[in-house]
Amino acid sequence: MAPSRLWLLVPLLSAERCDWSKDAQDTPHLQLVQRQLQLRKSRKVRTWDEARDKAAELVPQLSAPELHQLLRGEHFAVTGEPDAGYYVGNIAGVPRLGLPALKMQDAGQGFRATEPKTGGTTTAFPCMLALASTWDEELVELVAAAIATEFKGKGANVVLGPSINVHRVAAGGRNFEYLSGEDGHLGARLTAAYVKGVQDQGVMAVAKHFAFNEQETKRMLMDAHASERSKWELYYAPFRAAVEAGVGAVMCAYNKVNGTYACHNSEILTNDLRSKMGFHGFVMSDWLAMHSPEALAAGLDQEQPGLINLPFGNKYGILSDKVITGLDRKVKEGAARHILTSVFRLGLDLEPGCAPPNCTKELTSDQTKAITKGQGHGAIAFRAAASAVTLLKNTNSLLPLSKGKVHRIAVVGKACHDAAHASYIGKGSGFVQPDSSARTPFQAIKERASKDEIEVVKPEGDTAAEAAALASSADLVIVVIGADASEGADRSSLDLGLDNDALVRGVTSKAPTVVLLQIPGAAPALRERARERGDLVTDL
């Protein structure tokens, strides 16, 4: 008998796990959340002109130290320094003038956890690539709004996202973080929705990484050469959409562009971004991407992470006290006006919140968990995950599974037993601290199958031989495999790895029907043997 042929494809639903709890599927609750978020859009904000005028009036009132602290960050929450209560990026406020502190955190899959106590108090949403796979602007806006709400619950007011580089390197280590997928036009549409979702909640969005940071390999050394046509037709499209949506800030990239580092490149920062696109906000550097103070004259406004504490009481930063004091005040005021224009445009001064380092309570509090549960963020994450799935082939109508079609299912593969396994969580800036209560794929499948009295079993161990032995006794086998993805390194291959290949080979030689559930960090290479056996491919 020929094997059932069924294909289901989702490009990286998430390198993180989804919330499979019952309340996550509460559709009426989800509709209520949508109405609540719609109401928040009525919050009043200043126009760009009003914000610019207010910034121009206030900047001359800043003392030299106050002006300097706007242009450079202080502390870095992931350096292991003893001071608690800091975020990934921190800009001190000026209380006497009503200026709030800027508290920045990454958001590749939700609020990035930098303290162990943060884990489990926020939602792990599907990654940006999964959102791109939904082709759903309204849903992307809803997810972004939910993320921004959790940021506010953690005391943060700047989302370091969306990441919108276009996938031009299939093995790119950060592809799971990028909302654009492979298409600049799709990225543009979804970027606008994401920026709106975040900023309608009174939180600033930051479009990154500008520009041409499409790979991780030698990202701080590579020199991207781009023609005018390729820039504007493909790579710039999502950034232009972010600008048109009113994004508050743009982050410049590590790499060089046509011979000059992106954060020092006046051609892309001043000519392309500010003049041609009409950008009104400010430009911050990627972390440690500023190389000299001359970057301020080229279009950079803020150094991140700024001054970092080093051993023995020393500090590191390009804009040291000595260097920044010697710079022309007019140049510094120009950068400060850009920063404060965004602050006033989005009304961040109206909700200042805590000021680092006095944000430990907000960062570690369980109040955000109450927000996520009370406002149905699990339902939003679940809907986004489900919407990213694409059915490509369903020969013999194998799906949906039911008691009449199968009686015994075997679930095999290392990834099926651990919802928060390190190999299946996007690493680096996109990392979200997993919730220890998250259910594994095996647990979720077993619970659902039990409703139809379908038996679900798993092997004692994780070897290919054990999986193959169990496969012969099942009507259907679900193979759950994966590969990691991380900032800082591209995948060495699109193959699934020798262990995974052996597992799939062994199971498909014994089982009449196989479901292959993949959790890859980049586009997987599907070999001919998989297509011949009609595997169901689901990238989660």
TrEMBL record:
Taxonomic lineage: Eukaryota, Sar, Alveolata, Dinophyceae, Suessiales
Gene3D superfamilies, sorted: Glycoside hydrolase family 3 C-terminal domain (3.40.50.1700), Glycoside hydrolase, family 3, N-terminal domain (3.20.20.300)
PANTHER family linked: BETA-GLUCOSIDASE, BETA-GLUCOSIDASE G-RELATED
Documented EC number(s): 3.2.1.21
Protein name per its UniProtKB record: Probable beta-glucosidase G
One annotated GO molecular function: beta-glucosidase activity
Job description of the protein: Beta-glucosidases are one of a number of cellulolytic enzymes involved in the degradation of cellulosic biomass. Catalyzes the last step releasing glucose from the inhibitory cellobiose.
Glycoside hydrolase family 3 N-terminal domain: residues covered: 96-292
Source species of the chain: Effrenium voratum
Catalytic activity of the protein: Hydrolysis of terminal, non-reducing beta-D-glucosyl residues with release of beta-D-glucose
Keywords for this protein: Glycosidase, Hydrolase, Secreted, Signal
